Amino acid sequence: MKLRGTMTEQAFREELSASRTQLFNDISMQRFLNIISETFPAMKTAYILYWTPEQGEDIITFLVDIHSVIKIELDRYDLKIAPIVDVYPIENLIKGRSKINQIKIAVALDLAKNDLEF
Predict the structure, then answer these.
(1) For residue 2, what are the contacts with CB-CB under 8 A and spacing of at least 6?
(2) CB neighbour class for 72 (10 Å; exposed up to 12, middle 13-18, buried from 19)
(3) 42-86: per-residue pLDDT in tens?
(4) Comparing 18 with 5, which gets the higher pLDDT?
(5) Structural domain boundaries of the chain?
């Protein structure tokens, strides 16, 4: 999908940039960051694509670099419960998504590409 600089894209760009900052700098995200780093030791960047808060756990889907998606289900209260981790290629995430979600993914990929250039 080609990005055109729309207001929707700009809003996603701001949201995704904030999510990256939160992931790498917020202590409350440390468990998620550790799981991503263990799964992808060479990871350079990641963005939160979707966050589904459930009653006792959080389910967060991350774009890792430009090639992979990791979905992590993590219990909020019991640190002993092992997280549920699913990893799949970015192509699997794009299939069947609405236009707005395709735009969000395209913006995340663009941001990740920019991160990896440095």
Answers:
(1) none
(2) buried
(3) 999 999 999 998 889 999 999 999 999 999 999 988 889 999 999
(4) 18
(5) 7-117
